[in-house]
Write a structure and sequence with these properties.
Layout lengths: L1 H10 L1 H9 L4 H38 L7 H28 L2 H6 L2
Helix pairs in contact: 1-4, 3-4
Length: 108
């Protein structure tokens, strides 16, 4: 997530500079990139939970067991994904927020 978001910051310098020049604060920019990182992490977490439940269902079916997926496992998986995504998104969000509008617009 961190790598994807750093590349996103680099590729979107012009957009960041334009938004800053039009009045967006550093907090707005950081919030946008942190939100994108969390959304990316959530989508990955949901995908992981779906794959995990599917694999568990197949294994339980092969063994003739009842499928039991504790809700805490789903919540824990999604929570871990969001926590890791949030931590991974901090550096790119900070980097995007620190770009000066003039430098960001000049590099495009």
């Amino acid at each position: 997530i961190a790598n994807v978001m750093v590349i996103s910051v680099i590729e979107r310098r012009g957009e960041i500079g334009l938004r800053r020049a039009l009045g967006a604060t550093r907090r707005h920019i950081a919030s946008q990139f942190l939100g994108e990182a969390l959304l990316l992490a959530l989508m990955g977490g949901v995908g992981g939970v779906i794959v995990g439940i599917t694999a568990t269902a197949v294994y339980a079916n092969v063994k003739g067991w009842a499928l039991i997926v504790p809700p805490i496992a789903i919540i824990g998986g999604l929570g871990a994904a969001l926590l890791i995504g949030g931590v991974a998104g901090l550096y790119p969000a900070t980097r995007a927020a620190r770009l000066s509008p003039t430098d960001a617009l000049r590099t495009t």
